[in-house]
Specification:
By secondary structure, the protein is mainly β. About 0% of the residues lie in helices and about 30% in strands.
Length: about 650
């Protein structure tokens, strides 16, 4: 038996804090008691010896059958707290910060979350809230008169007569009489502001306020996420303001994406109009200026003059001294007084023609007669060039001179095809012998004249133009042969050849499959299938009279081709058996067999993991090994009850926000 670990790895960052407004005043142990309903006093729903501490707003269904899995994922947080009369347990949500989230699997009981206080990653019990007083323990709620999206749905704060708790841990050092929940993971007392359990040193609770997403301030500091709240050093909180999503400023400087723009002048800072900027809406804010400089995405453009800076077309700009490309790069050697912007990245001035966005001068090009045609072709009165779509050097577009082309008669026909009075060209390459006067444009990049067939720019060797026809998916044929992407398929029978699905094709003798991508695609011939009975069935599984096969060609032993079907994941079944990959599953009830999630499936009798019965022995192995990455589930959990991700367990309409501000 292969060993598997008991961790779930989910490659997303999810923070389980909620945006809220207002606060909740904490009563000390000796304070006046208010009505339990007004306070949100916890009530207990007794089920056997262990009791859920019932949370306000949770329905009765959330507390049914303590030993069974949660059917509705929205009830997960309703089961956050339990007590056995001696201890209080926390089994709720936890904030995580790493791009890799590790949580314990969901087991067939309510005790499934590992303790943050105990480093044993094999622990399968809920966290004991150490020292909690069971008689006075209660959950702290927000004011339920607030809109639903602003209420506390995560239930992470709690208290008893002596202590505050967050996520089941003691929240020491907070004054209970002035404690208030601010929202977004922040709380405060009379002395400081805290993010979750960590004090923001130097914070002033009296003036603390949230700004836009990711920012807050008080009289002393501006705070930002990075990814946890930190002081935005050097920023003046009194004059700090947002210009747009990228730019901020205070009385001293302008900031681009939270980085100070050295030398910037906030008093004269403004955005430049972007009319004519290709690929951007007019007014798109990538260029800005102040008294001192012109900026592109927060970086000063060296030498640019703010007074004479102007936009041209297609992303070009200029000032009295120089020309600038769409990304703010200064281009040397082009005359700003006579520059003319041409299509396709070409420019010219009185001295010459330039390509690669001005980086390269086209040697010998005449600026007075130069014109950019289409589909990579350009010409002047003397020469024709073709700009290939491949790249050379450091991303430079390759410009090829067509030495034998006649500039006067040269014209672009369509797509990559052009002609002059001597030849037909495809992407700059001469199509030897091709007669455009008799061209027939076919589908899938094929074309022909009276005598020749081409696939794109390449001649289809040996093809008979008179009988040539294009089939589906780049297949073609004539009276003699079958072709794929213009290449002959050796041995293929013309009369019986047909394209199937899932990249398969066949004739009376052989089965074929296309593999690869783009220009690297090719066709393979298989000799292990019976071509006469070959067909493609469920989930692209090939089959013939001898059996059913995986996509890699492995035979699924004993599978019945007539009734075989894919059910999900690595599971399939026919009328007689169920299978995990190619392996039959012993003892399965085929009629009720269904896929659940990941490597789990079930029938009316039991649950299966990777084709094996999910019994106590397998569970023990999974708990004590390190390479399992699946959710562990219970046979009592129906398919729609599976919790696929952490966001699914937050009751609607609670939003999920980035960590902190």
């Amino acid at each position: 038996m292969k060993k598997f670990s008991n961790k779930i790895i989910i490659c997303v960052v999810i923070t389980l804090t909620v945006t809220v407004a207002g606060g909740f005043a904490y009563l000390g142990a000796n304070g006046d008691k208010q009505n339990n309903d007004a306070l949100g006093k916890s009530q207990e729903n007794i089920i056997g010896e262990v009791r859920f501490i019932r949370l306000k707003g949770c329905p009765e269904d959330a507390y049914k059958e303590i030993g069974a899995e949660i059917v509705n994922p929205n009830y997960f947080m309703c089961r956050s707290y339990l007590t056995d009369g001696e201890f209080v347990y926390y089994h709720g949500l936890r904030v995580v910060y790493s791009p890799i989230i590790e949580i314990q699997p969901l087991t067939p009981s309510f005790i499934a979350t590992s303790s943050p206080d105990i480093k044993d990653d094999k622990l399968m019990g809920a966290t004991i809230i150490k020292g909690a007083d069971t008689e006075t323990f209660e959950i702290i709620y927000f004011d339920d008169t607030l809109p639903a999206a602003q209420q506390n749905h995560t239930f992470t704060y709690a208290r008893d007569k002596d202590t505050l708790y967050w996520e089941g841990k003691k929240f020491d050092g907070v004054d209970p009489d002035t404690f208030a929940i601010l929202g977004r993971g922040f709380v405060k007392d009379k002395t400081a502001v805290y993010f979750q359990w960590q004090k923001l040193e130097g914070s002033d609770p009296g003036t603390f306020e949230f700004l836009w997403s990711g920012f807050a301030r008080d009289k002393n500091f501006v705070y930002r996420n990075n990814p946890r709240p930190e002081i935005f050093e050097g920023v003046d909180p009194a004059t700090f303001e947002k210009i747009d999503d990228n730019y901020l400023k205070d009385k001293n400087a302008v900031y681009y994406r939270q980085e100070k723009i050295e030398g910037s002048d906030p008093a004269t800072f403004y955005f430049l109009s972007m009319e004519g900027y290709i690929g951007k809406d007019p007014g798109a804010r990538v260029y800005a200026a102040d008294w001192n400089a012109v900026y592109y995405n927060g970086k000063a453009i060296a030498g640019a003059d703010p007074e004479t800076f102007e936009f041209l077309s297609n992303g070009w700009s200029k000032d009295k001294n120089a020309i600038y490309r769409y990304d703010g790069t200064r281009i040397y050697g082009i005359d700003p007084a006579t520059i003319e912007i041409l299509p396709y990245g070409y420019v010219k001035d009185k001295n010459g023609v330039y390509h690669n966005d001005g980086d390269n001068k086209i040697q010998g090009a005449d600026p007075r007669t130069f014109e950019a045609l289409a589909n990579g072709y350009v010409k002047d009165r003397n020469f024709v060039w073709f700009a290939s779509y491949g790249y050379e050097g450091e991303g430079a577009l390759s410009l090829q001179k067509l030495n034998n082309a006649d500039s006067t008669s040269f014209e672009v026909i369509e797509r990559q095809y052009a002609r002059d009075n001597k030849a037909v060209y495809c992407s700059g390459k001469i199509m030897d012998g091709f007669d455009w006067g008799n061209v027939v444009m076919l589908k899938n990049n094929y074309l022909r004249d009276k005598n020749l067939v081409f696939f794109g720019c390449d001649k289809v060797d040996g093809a008979d133009a008179g009988s040539f026809e294009v089939l589906d998916y780049s297949y073609s044929k004539d009276k003699n042969s079958v072709y794929y992407l213009g290449k002959k398929i050796d041995g293929a029978d013309v009369e019986s050849f047909k394209n199937l699905t899932c990249s398969y094709s066949k004739d009376k003798n052989n089965v074929y499959k296309t593999v690869g991508k783009g220009s690297g695609m090719t066709i393979l011939k298989f000799d292990n299938f019976d071509a006469g009975t070959f067909r493609v069935i469920a989930n692209c599984n090939p089959s013939d009279k001898n059996g059913v096969y995986t996509n890699s060609g492995e035979k699924i032993e004993s599978a019945d081709p007539e009734t075989f079907k894919f059910v999900g994941g690595s599971y399939s079944k026919d009328a007689y058996r169920a299978y995990w990959k190619t392996i039959p599953i012993d003892g399965v009830d085929v009629a009720t067999f269904k896929f659940l999630s990941g490597e789990f499936a079930k029938d009316k009798n039991t649950t299966y993991y990777k084709g094996e019965v999910y019994d106590d022995e397998l569970k023990e192995i999974l708990r004590n090994t390190d390479d399992n990455i699946e959710f562990m589930i219970s046979p009592t959990l129906p398919p729609d009850g599976i919790i696929h991700d952490l966001e699914a367990i937050v009751p609607a309409p609670t939003p999920i926000y980035p960590i902190g501000l």
